[in-house]
Structure formats: structure tokens, C-alpha cells
Amino acid sequence: MMRCDRCLKPAVTFIRYNGSHLCSEHFIDYYEKRVKKEIKKQVGKLPQEGVVAVAVSGGKDSLVAMKILADLLRPRRKVKLHAITIDEGIEGYRPKSIGLAARYAKWWGVDHHVVSFKESVGCSLDEIVRTKDEDVSECGYCGVLRRMLMNSKARELGAAMIATGHNLDDVSQSILMNFVSGDIEKLSRLGPHTDVKEGLIPRIMPLRTVTEKENVIYALLNGIELHEQECPYTVNAHRQEFRSIVETLESRTPGTRHSIVKSYDVLKPLLLEKYGGTKINRCERCGEPTSAKVCKSCLLVDKLKRK
Ligand code: SF4
Ligand SMILES: [Zn+2]
Ligand SMILES: [Zn+2]
Predict the structure, then answer these.
(1) What is the pLDDT of residue 236?
(2) Whose CB among 4, 139, 140, 298 lies 3.0–4.6 Å from 23's, allowing a Cys bridge?
(3) Domains plus CATH for the chain?
């Protein structure tokens, strides 16, 4: 049996990228220290008053993000944490995770809001998939509409920031994906956001330096139920390819995910210097922030209406 490097109790995990074995207590300590350090790096101190929003899909990462923020903000009586779940309308998949989001929000004393595609834009993702053009993927529709609804709900709640559950694996995949597709302007806009643009609620990513595996272990050690099922549209996701590329690189050279994110952090100020000045307008139709006249969500909804 492997023993913890710090106290010799049985180890619950081996962290390959730094060669350490940790017991449950020391793993939780190691994990939470890194998350707090990352929050400090991204926002300095969390607010002493006002509203913070957390995007909660009901998957393990977002549940862990909600737990960590609820714990950190609980002593701050003037800060209100709100969880926002977007219900895209994916039958057989989303209802279970919404149930988990609602259950844990109640448990940790967080106000929970569900915003549905159907009520907000008139059709569920399942309906969109049945009628959409081939040139925009399921995730293309889902991502644009979800970001818009999340931003608009967080703004309505008066949130100073939206925390998301993105982990090191997600972030390193996103960086590579944008780099490979040559979308450098989009690369410059990846969170966490340090600049505040009118109407756009900045995103923070407390779990950005912890791995997906570490999130699973942290969730299990804290009794959080895992929603194992994958979105039925995941098979079509371009991201899957990058997931396997990053996993291969990481298995050959442990620490690769950290290196990708570190390199991005060095480049980001340069990217912001070049692209950060993009003027933000209000969409002529819906009033949401956009760099064009009409926002992407309105253009996508138009496309569907023409069907
Ligand atoms: S896999 Fe695609 S369709 Fe499914 S929830 Fe994620 S972004 Fe939406
Ligand atoms: Zn220990
Ligand atoms: Zn719009």
C-alpha cells in the first residue's frame, strides 16, 4: 500500500506531475490551497459585499466550484452567492444534472436559478438539433446561447463576476483548440477576465489549475454525487479530439497541461494589447453586448426561424 508523503497514512492518490502520494486529508489541503491561490491570482480578494454568481451545470466540476465558493463566502454576510444553471433542453441528460445542482445549492445555502433555452429563446437544444443547418454544430448553438443567457442572468442578479468550474484539462484543451484553428482574437478572450467591459460580467475560473482527476477525487471525498452521463451531442464535439491529444501529451510528459496554461498566461497580456481594445456595442435586437451590430445569439436564432 502506498503511504502519504506527509503523514504516512494510506494514500488516496498519486499525483503524477509532481510525484507525490497524498492521504485524503492532505489531498484536500493541497487541493484547496491551490484553488485559493488561483482565486487570489485572478481577482485578488473575493468581494466583501455584493453578488457573486457561479455557473452550475450539475457536473462534478461546477458542483465543486459551487462548494468551494459557498465555503469561502459563507463568513461574508454581505456577499450573496447565486448559482445559475442553464437548461439547454437535452432530454435524458440535463434533467438529472439540474436536480443535482438544485440539491447541492440548497444544501450549501446558495440561491439557485434555472434559465431555459425554451423559455428564453423559444426552442430547446433538442428542437434546434432537429431543424438546424449542417454548418453550425450542436455545440456551436449550445455554447453561444448558453454564454449569452448566463451573462444576461448574472447581470440581472447584479453579479460582479461569474465563476465557472473549468479545470486544467478544459482550459489547456481550449487554448490548443483556438491556437490550432488560428482564432487568436478568440484566444485573447478566454477567461479568466481581468478587464471589465460594459454589460459583460467577467468570468473567473477557480479550478483552472486543478486537474479533472483531482476534481473527481475532491468531489468523492466530499460526498458529492457524480453525474457520469455524457451529453448525447458530445460525440460530435471537436473538443473530444483535443481532449485525446492533450491526454497523450500529458501521459508522455507529465506537466504538459500546466505548461500550456503557463505559456498562455505569458502570451495573454500581449494578445490583450493587440485585441483587448475591441469596442463593445449593445446588440440592436436584444441589447446583449457584442462586438458587431447584432449578436451571435440573435443571428443563430434568425437562422432557425428561417427554417
Ligand atoms: S457537449 Fe455540446 S451540446 Fe452538449 S452541453 Fe456541451 S456544448 Fe452543449
Ligand atoms: Zn497525509
Ligand atoms: Zn442579440
Answers:
(1) 59
(2) 4
(3) 42-277 (3.40.50.620)
